[in-house]
Amino acid sequence: MAKKDVKKVIKPVVAKSNKESNSNTINVASNAAVSTISLFEELSKSVITSYKQYLKDLENDQKLRLIDTFLAFLVVVGIIQFSFCLLGGSFPFNAFLGGFSATIGQFVLTVGLRLQNSDSNKDLFNGLLPERAFGEYILASLILHFVIIHFIN
C-alpha cells in the first residue's frame, strides 16, 4: 500500500517537471517530503498496532513478559558495552570480548527459554515440561558464565 501511494505522488510531479522548468523543482521536494511523512506515519501506526497486539497476546502470561523484559535489558546492556568500547577504548580487549560474549550468549539462551515456554510452540516441545526447560536454561547459563570467567582470566 505504501509503495503505491509513493508512486502515485511521484509520477504526477515527474510529469509536471518535464513540462515546466525551474518552479516545479520546489514542488518535487515538497511532494517528496509529504510522501516521506506519510510513510513515517504508516510505520508508526504499524508499530503501535503491533505493540498493542503484543500486549493483548501476553495479557495473561506474566512469565513471557518477564522474559521479554530481560531480553530488552540484555539488548540495552549490549549497546552500552559496545558504545563504551567505541568511545572509551577497549584496553583489556579480552574483558570487553568476555562481557559482550556473555551478553550475547545470555540473550540466545533466553530466547531459547522463551521459545520453549511459549504457548504457540507447544507442538514443537510436546514432552518438555517448563520446569525442565528452566533447569536446562540455568545449567546452560552457569556453563556459559564459567567459560566466560575463564576466558577473561
Automatic annotation (TrEMBL):
GO cellular component, one term: oligosaccharyltransferase complex
Positions in coiled-coil regions: none
GO terms (BP aspect): protein N-linked glycosylation
Membrane topology: Multi-pass membrane protein
Transmembrane intervals: 70-89, 134-152
Signal peptide (UniProt feature, chain positions): none
Pfam families (UniProt xref): DAD (PF02109)
Primary location recorded for the protein, binned into one broad class: endoplasmic reticulum
Subcellular localization: Endoplasmic reticulum membrane
Key words, A-Z: Endoplasmic reticulum, Membrane, Transmembrane, Transmembrane helix
Superkingdom of origin organism: Eukaryota
Pathway stated in the Swiss-Prot or TrEMBL entry: Protein modification; protein glycosylation
UniProt similarity note: Belongs to the DAD/OST2 family.
Function: Subunit of the oligosaccharyl transferase (OST) complex that catalyzes the initial transfer of a defined glycan (Glc(3)Man(9)GlcNAc(2) in eukaryotes) from the lipid carrier dolichol-pyrophosphate to an asparagine residue within an Asn-X-Ser/Thr consensus motif in nascent polypeptide chains, the first step in protein N-glycosylation. N-glycosylation occurs cotranslationally and the complex associates with the Sec61 complex at the channel-forming translocon complex that mediates protein translocation across the endoplasmic reticulum (ER). All subunits are required for a maximal enzyme activity.
Subunit structure: Component of the oligosaccharyltransferase (OST) complex.
Designated name of the protein: Dolichyl-diphosphooligosaccharide--protein glycosyltransferase subunit OST2
Organism annotation: Pichia californica
The encoding gene: OST2
